[in-house]
Amino acid sequence: MELVTAKTNISRGVLGEAEIIKNKSLLNKWIDEAGTHLTETGNFAKGVQKKAEENFAAIGLPTKRTEDFKYTNIRSYLQDDYAAKNGSASLTESEIENVLIDDFVSVVLINGKYIPEYSRLKNLPKEVTIKSLFKALEEGNEVAIKQFNSGLEKTTNPMAMLNTALAGDGIFISIPENFSCPIPVHIANICTGEAKNFYNPRHLVYLHKNSELTLIESYHSVNHTGKTFTNSATEFIIEDTASLENYILQDEDILSQRNDVRHFTVNTGSRMNSVAISLNGGMLRNDPTIFINGENAEVHLNGLFIVKENCHTDNHTMVEHRAPNCMSNELYKGIIGDNATGVFNGKILVYRDAQKTNAYQSNKNILMGDKSTINTKPQLEIYADDVRCTHGTTTGKLNEEALFYMRSRGLNEKLAKNILLQSFAKEVSNTIKNEAFRTLIEQKIEENIQ
Amino acid sequence: MLEIKDLKVSVEGKQILKGLNLTVKKGEVHAIMGPNGSGKSTLASVIAGKEDYTVDGGSITFNGKDMLELSPDERAKEGMFLAFQYPVEIPGVSTINFLKTAISEIRQYRGLPPMEAKDFLKVLKEKQKVVEIEANLTGRSVNEGFSGGEKKRNEIFQMAMLEPSLAILDETDSGLDIDALRIVATGVNKLRTKENAFVVITHYQRLLEYIVPDFVHVLYQGRIVKSGTRELALELEGKGYDWIKKEFSELAV
Q1: Where does a domain end: A293, A322, A345?
Q2: Is the Cβ pair A410, B77 closer than 8 Å?
Q3: Domain-terminating residue out of A269, A293, A317
């Protein structure tokens, strides 16, 4: 498959020798600090990590001039003196207890590292594999090795390169062919620890042909004593006619800064729905890329951000239609209060061969405060001639006419506002199919709309 | 019940109401007529408490209480209702849930216990019949995708459910065909009692054939320039507003 002229918008390769050396030395510092460099511990990842190091050194951390990071200046969150660390367990079971959800399979990750003793896998069907990604690599798991060695290899995203170079041990989930996992798998991600820690967990989720999975990711802060930066990367492979429901809840403290790269590879006849709910954190960036590689695939990508105080949230999405007869539908909504800032930068890229593509994208925002900010940039890039693509964005204050109407019927201002905001948010929360999790999200939304 | 004295109101520095007086007693129906731009809708909005207006002078009292001190929702809780000229669409909120919330808020304000679900349903069915509104409309999001007639009927339905003691109908007849007008007017007539009152704001006499007023007032350039009985409306129908405009043109100066 050939892409005519388009190239993703990361500027690269124009750095001088001195800057490249600086990037290399920063990277080497982080590699030493992380201390789990795979090139030294196994034979499976040598090439890919070396290559990622070189690629990263050539472009360095994104700056304000990097188009894809224009509204999120990574440098203002992640500085050179952040120390690369790997996740470890330093919490008690009771501290973890209240972020788990009853009835789901619970997988506990602390700073990105899988902690089996806190996880609850007893209801997990034996067909499903859940284990540490490094363990899967060491055991010679072919799928994991193949994917790790090729997955993010071609990325142009410096943060993804950095993740590969510094990869911390994350989670590996595999659903076998023709198996529908009857119970949602909940990954409870807990961020804890001291200031200036820098984590790079790497995860892999593999849905073999005709399998099904509901995967919930939630993000929390426990005993968090200073600003930390997490730069995670997760690959989702959805083989032919498989189906993934993926829900994300970001509900952390103001000290938490995260850049979550997700790559979804969607194959023939498969289906995915990813819903990202961002409520609390210091800096929350979701950076999903969807590669639609097979015909008749269906992609739903939804997001809701309700942020306040000084929170910065960024949804940077890329949907690449590389095959004909597929559909994608994106809906992102934001409620931004106080001094918070929101970013939506969504791009749909339709390759020349991807005829009969249906691609939709919509972003709607409500600004609650005089100092609340949204930067929204919807983009379409189309190289096929027989497609149906639309995008649109609206930003405004809460509808004053509707507020007065409701107040004139006896609802006080706060209640009227709450109802309007909740109905605004519901369009996104309704895309969560799992009822138990949807109910939990609706409660969270209610708590966060004030 | 409602007493408006020397009410002066401006919007962005421009005076719209220039000393308006109006007294409404319970059991009465008052019609306020007037040419476009005379201040009819401003009057309705100010009584309901819309905040885009500046009250420069005068008073609005309702059952002895100073309404200008109260927020729009408190006025509603005191028993006022405004039927909007342009009812607003509220996506994602069904009329039934909206009314449930409104009724519960109003009852709480009045120190009444919450309405039981079965009682609410009973009243709902009864009032749906009164205003001839289809149940599927009330189950949908408030006014979303409704036709002009459906929106107006939904206003009257909400009025029926909230049982205000004073209802102000702001050009409820605008944009209605004759059948819709009849249904709306019949609804209002069924809701008339000795205890409640209506202020019907309209440009045309047409609505007053169905909702027969006790008093008719002509609003012109921010003041009530003529008051009378139903015959005044008929006279306006015959002569048009030019007659008023001529007679009171000195007010413009």
Answers
A1: A293
A2: yes
A3: A293
